[in-house]
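Lipoprotein: structure tokens wanted.
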Amino acid sequence: MRFQKLHFILYAKISFIALLTITSCSSEDDGDPGPQISIPKYSVLASVGDQEYLTTSDDLSSGKISIVGQGLETNSFGSAVTKDGYTYLNNFNESTVDQYQVTENGWEKINSISIAPLSPSGSFRLMQITGDNTLLLTNWPDDNGDCPYAIVSLPSFTVASNGSFNIPDVKGFDPVEIGGLVKDGKIYLGTMYSNVGTWDSFPDSLITWKLDYPSFTNPEMIVSTASLGTVAGFTGPSSLVDEKGDIYQQNIRSKHWYNMGTREEMPTVFVRIRDGEYDDSYVFNVSEKFGGTVSLIGIQYVGNGIAYGKLLDEDATNEWGDAWANNYTSIVKIDLYNKTITKLNIPQGPFIAIREGIVENGKLYLPISPVGQTAHIYEITIGGGADDFVKGAELDGNNVVANAIFKNE
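Answer:
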């Protein structure tokens, strides 16, 4: 009996140990990842006075997102992009471009690139992600028309190439600003031409330079006579490419823009570039849709021929400072294919304070910061009508300027 009892106890212990081993192996074999690390879904880049912060949130549709003193203090003046879980910020204070990643412990700087060896001015005004997983940095033309550039490989964040290219004078006009997009081995650089110093005359046309990319060689000028002004962009891009491969541009011809008020008869338009040339069969005259003088100051494409833009009421004031810093700008839905434009019944704000949103699940989440009012993120139903939106998360304070929203993925 003693032997049988001892045998039973030993058998039970061995079985228990075996069960633990099997359970442990089974857990490993099942690929149990262990504790899951969660990071916030979104980031909001916003400024309060002279201070700028990159903060995070899991909810854009409700509640409050605290900005002041939260997250990462930055100096990008709204110049930031994201790609594959990394955020790239123009650091104007230190003359660097910085690579960040948000972790469970907050923002972590991964690397920095010094701009001084790449750009004589020590800065790049423009930063964009291209389709070949690179970060393109460019600057406006200097007095000789030379534009420095750098191409940064991602996510390694290393400089693949750098140099400069030249944008020449055209009929006595100086190149002032550039901005555009990369498509099919070409870069299309919309430009602004004027007389540097006087700013009192402009070509009677829209001018884009097309160059081979990434070599920035074989420059070719293409011209549209649909209107005048700049197609270089300002607070937001002026160019987009649709699913068909066509490029659409909108001009800024504001009467507050330098001394362009002398040419108010020239309209705000959309033009199209098809097969590398301006397609003169397509002109969308935005000005004729409204009574009075209006200008589009930046657009965001959301797909299927639909874009959303910032429409400035030019007649509300004759002061440039008021035009960009007070509540004279509306959000509009633009149907490029059917040539219609719909003003949304969202509170107006300064165009400088309405930047870029994100598209998710058929919604455009767009931050709007009216002067003297509380800033909110608005959830806009893409393709909907004037009232197809809801007021989303509140941004603390009435002096917050939200520059952009990003997904942390």
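The chain has two helices and 29 strands. The mean pLDDT is 87.

Cheers.
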